[in-house]
Amino acid sequence: MRELLVTTFLTLDGVMQAPGGPEEDDSGGFSHGGWSVNYWDDLMGQVMGDIMAKPFDLLLGRRTYDIFAGYWPSAPPEAGGAPLNAATKYVASRGRPNLTWEKSVHLAGDAGPAVSALKQTDGPGLQVHGSGDLIQTLLRENLVDVFHLWVFPVLVGEGKRLFAAGTIPAGLKLVDSKVSSTGVVIGTYVPAGELKTGSFAT
């Protein structure tokens, strides 16, 4: 069974929309695109390198696929896109996407059952980057095995959130954490069963 890993950049108030630039996603009138750009340091590069070093395939939503496909196939070698170009790209979309990037596969129909079936196949782990709408489906279907959450010390007040309305309550276990020189907290979490509540009042 394949492991499914989600890597997401988040603001401190939980927004994941358009971390890399204004052009990524301005839907809903979002005007703060690019909020992660000025925080990158060597540690973050090392952590991302470690994530990308293991064999993997990509699982992407349509919008993120289009962004990646528009950049990585022709990116300079020093940009580090070789693992992305070598991976098989599974694209979850109800429409008929134009899959121009080499080694791209369309996952048609409902994403939940399609991804669940994909996880049962032989192959490397499945990495999800961006793909906010797809992640909401993966969360509802309990399909995520590992979360790499990069929390940046910024507030934007609006935008698409990773854990949006409708998120199913659940426990997570922190299995690794690092802090960049710029204050980005990088936490690795795995599912830990149902949410357990209690009371300090006895």
Give a short overview.
By secondary structure, the chain is α/β, with parallel strands linked by helices. Helices cover about 20% and strands about 25% of the residues.
Report on the structure:
This protein is an alpha/beta fold. It has a single domain (4-191), classed as Dihydrofolate Reductase, subunit A (3-Layer(aba) Sandwich). 21% of the residues lie in helices and 24% in strands. It has five helices and eight strands, in the order βαβααββαβαβββ. The chain has an eight-stranded mixed beta sheet with strand order 4-3-2-5-1-6-8-7. A hairpin with a 5-residue loop joins strand 7 (172-179) and strand 8 (185-191). The longest helix has 12 residues, at 42-53. It is globular. The model has no long low-confidence stretch (mean pLDDT 94).
What is the CATH H-level superfamily? Dihydrofolate Reductase, subunit A
Sheet of most strands: 8 strands, mixed
Counting helices, strands and paired strands, the structural category is alpha/beta
Q: Give the overall shape.
A: globular
Number of domains: 1
Number of H/I helices? 5
Write down the CATH topology: Dihydrofolate Reductase, subunit A
Termini separation: 44 Å
Task: Specify the helix fraction band.
Answer: 10-25%
Helix-strand layout with pairing:
Elements: E1 4-11, H1 42-53, E2 56-61, H2 62-69, H3 82-86, E3 89-92, E4 104-107, H4 111-119, E5 125-129, H5 132-140, E6 146-152, E7 172-179, E8 185-191
Parallel strand pairs: 1-5, 1-6, 2-3, 2-5, 3-4
Antiparallel strand pairs: 6-8, 7-8
